[in-house]
């Protein structure tokens, strides 16, 4: 099987879809990645966990926005 641009795009779309369907209360809170209310101090760099949760929330928000626009 050749590694083509199409297979790379397809893999990226599948990964974005996998992140978009993660449910925060059902799945992420069970592994300790639920809503994090702790806010770091001024100037503190957020940890990798906080950055990944922000990425997951951002992807879910963008994907939710795309679905709403396409149905209107």
Count of separate structural domains: 1
- In round numbers, the mean pLDDT is 76
Helix share bin = 55-70%
Number of strands: 0
| Strand-pairing-aware structural class | mainly alpha
* Residue windows where pLDDT falls under 50 for at least 5 positions: none
Strand portion, in percent? Answer: under 5%
Number of helices: 3
Q: What's the gyration radius in Å?
A: 16 Å
**Which sheet architecture does the biggest sheet show?**
none
User: How do the helices and strands follow one another from N- to C-terminus?
Assistant: HHH
First-to-last CA distance: 39 Å
Shape: extended
Short structural description:
The chain has helices at 5-20, 24-28, 48-71. It is mostly helical.
How would you describe what is shown here?
Keywords: Membrane, Protein transport, Signal, Transmembrane, Transmembrane helix, Transport. It is found in: Membrane. By secondary structure, this protein is mainly alpha-helical. The chain has one domain. It has helices at residues 5-20, 24-28, 48-71. The longest helix is centred in the C-terminal third of the chain and has 24 residues, at 48-71. It is extended and about 50 Å long. The mean pLDDT is 76.
Question: Keyphrases for this structure?
Answer:
extended; 72 residues
